[in-house]
Amino acid sequence: MEVLLVLVLILLAIAFAGVGVLFSNNKNLTKKLNDKKELLLDEDEAIKKASDRAKSILLDAQNKALETSSKAKEDARNLLTEVEEREKQLDTREKKILERSNTLDQRFDSLESKEKSLEQSKRDVKTLRNEIVQKLEKVAGMTRQQAEKVLREELESELSEWTAKKIKEAEFEIQAKSDEKSKEILIDVMQKSATDYVAESTSTTIDIDNEDLKGKIIGKEGRNIRTFERLTGVDFIVDEAPNQVTLSSFDPVRREVAALTLQKLLKDGRIHPGSIEQTVNDVKRQIAREIRKNGEQLAYEAGFNDLPLEIIKLLGRFKYRFSYGQNLAKHTLEMIKLSQQLASELGADVKLSKKACLLHDIGKVLTHEIEGKPHHHISGDIVRKYLKDEKLANAVEAHHGDIEAKSLEAEIVKIADAISGARPGARRNTYEEYIQRVKALEDIAKQYDEVHEAYAIHAGREVRVIIQPKEASDEDTTTLAHKIAKEIEETQNYPGTVTVTAIREFRAKVDAK
């Protein structure tokens, strides 16, 4: 149909072209006939020319028509060839589609057949399974549910044993690795920490220029030395070595006060009860300033410059306090270094760990003032009172194990304290026992309202008790001394004997104006 339409269009184009050529030639002929010059020609000549012209025009028209017809036929043949090729391609595609459709139909039929076969196989397997289960139930003498229960129990038992075994293996492996890692961390930390050894003692030796000064220090009938010992609470020893006197006391603050007082008295040269008392008071005020300075220095070295003044004063007393012979300030600084390394290795709060180590033993300087509480409990109470930090308080008070450690930082403080105290040369047990024994003697005397102050001297072999004269008479003083001695006998263990010396002194001081 398309080919016929194309041929018709080509023939119409040829016809229109021929008509156009004839119309053009006719128009030219008419123009010439209307020309007067042409009319002047004779009739035969004009007919001849017209005939020749017409033949020429007709020939040209025929040639052009043949050319147009040939071209149209060629185009028609090309178009027909292209159409035939496209029809062949379409036929080929249609055959392929039909073949593919047939293949899909065959596959679908095959799948449908296999699905039906599979469903039938499932039904057969289910039937066979039911038959086997029934036979097994008859043979085993139990139902399926009972068999499942027995199998489940056996499987759980096997899994439980396997799990326990794996857990033990994992625990062993973890323990081995954790022990190895913890040892590496502790060794690294201990290598970077301070290793000073304990060198403090309970006595201080003062050099004097000549032996004659000893008599001046002792005074008439020993009144100077008695006043000195009473006001300072130390044991004054003058007969051990030439040109030396020894001040002995378990309390380093008392010993420091006595040493500075004696040095000032020797420098001034005036030694009598009045100058001794004045100098002791001046030195105590000086020591109070020194304590504050020491506290600020200790806080600065630890990296905390914003602590309350009350805590600064307590930290300043660390310099004069010892634990099993280990200086408390050095022990604290050592722990701060240890905790910094441990916290860095373990990913804990370094600042909190350091502050807890700084304050962990602050209660030790108040144990003689607060009765009935261990020093670490006192430390926790101080932190709660002045710093209002419960986590820090727990880290401070949990380092002896009787209070649960609630944070990693608290465990670090406990470890650092153990490392610092356990290294070789750090502490001496006998020294701490001595301090506790001497302090217990003083505490027994101080529990009575009539007692103003009590000092254990001569290495705990004597207790000097200062009685308030307004609270007790001379007779009461004797009775009180017997009570104190009796309680010491019943409650304390000590070598040799302990002498209780009760002193009642009444003073009247009036200024003349």
Describe the protein's architecture and organization.
This protein is mostly helical and 513 residues long. It folds into 4 domains: 120 residues; 51 residues; 226 residues, Hypothetical protein af1432, CATH 1.10.3210; 72 residues, K homology (KH) domain (GMP Synthetase, Chain A, domain 3). 69% of the residues lie in helices and 7% in strands. It is built from 16 helices and 8 strands. The protein has a 3-stranded antiparallel sheet with strand order 1-3-2, with helices on one face. The protein has a 3-stranded mixed sheet with strand order 6-7-8, with helices on one face. The protein has a two-stranded antiparallel sheet with strand order 4-5. A hairpin with a 6-residue loop joins strand 2 and strand 3. Helix 8 crosses helix 9 and helix 10 packs across helix 14. It is elongated, with a radius of gyration of 61 Å. The N and C termini lie far apart (154 Å).
